[in-house]
Amino acid sequence: MCKFFRRMVSAAVLLLVSMLLCLPQGNVEAASKAAVHELNYFKSYETQVEGQKVFRIEIGMDREDLEYQVLEKNYLRKQLVLDLKNTRPGKLKKNIKLSSPLAKKITISELEKRHTQVVIDLAGSVTEDLYKVTVAKAEPAKGKPYRLVVDLFAEPQAAPGESFQGVKGRTIVIDPGHGGSDSGAVGPTGLAEKTATLAVSKKVKSLLEASGARVVMTRETDVDVYGPNASDRQELQARVNVGEYTPGANIFVSIHCNAFSNPAAKGMETYYYPSSPRGEQLATYIYNELLKDGGLAGRGVRTANFYVMKHSSMPATLLELAFITNPREEKLLGDDKYQMTLAKAIVRGISHYFGD
Predict the structure, then answer these.
(1) Which of 66, 73, 116, 184 lies 20 to 30 Å from 191 when distance is taken between CA atoms?
(2) pTM
(3) pLDDT level of residue 126 (50, 70, 90 thresholds)
């Protein structure tokens, strides 16, 4: 009986081995690719990329072929998220403080088995042109494994090949509406006007400078231009003063988002001061480009007595890019690619103005 049982066990083992040997090669490869990655290296430092200062974060692991996804969490949480599938955090610290004005800390957590997230808390808005994620091969001589490399830029990166005629040598003042203690209008999901206007303005600045223009911003971060607790007049005059005190300033462009109590209100429009024919030309050129590329309803080129236009000695315009109180348009205003679409349209309009 015992001999018979041993024969049965031996036969079962041989059958199992035979079945494993007969597995399709694709299954073997799939099993190999399913090997779990483990994070085992971290480094952050400042470096130079094409002459620009960059804060670099390196996250290493024990093998290649990492499957990852980059997610952006903006609005209230300014976070860049690396979603790493089939990965364990390993022995890396769960919380890592960063010594950079661009990023505050990194949090590494295993959401579920073999699913790790690396969350980078940024100091400013999360936009596609402010970071770059690449993969680096192992460098054994330097003690560096295969790794993900995250570069954070202080200024937006202009899209390669972008060039706009007529702006070279011009001095252009860009005024991102609101800021600091004044959020401006707020959309249904919490996007603040001051955030959207600054994001678009930075892209406008980057594109203009790439084409040889000199650009002066009334604000480059989330601050009041005059200072906290200023009156409306003080704040607006401070913005005008930036243009007035900039030698050789040619035009003043104030960038805003519209708002209304009815969420169905939609579209884009531009404004100029009634007695400024050059302001009208500027507003019209930019409006035409916004309407062509923005894909939203057109509300026209209009006159208004807005303070920043009335008190600017140079041609000035105020842009209402979209209704931030409209759910669809708020979503567009918070989208990095759409922000770049708007920025290119604005710069194209400015280019036509100077070419007229």
Answers:
(1) 116
(2) 0.61
(3) confident
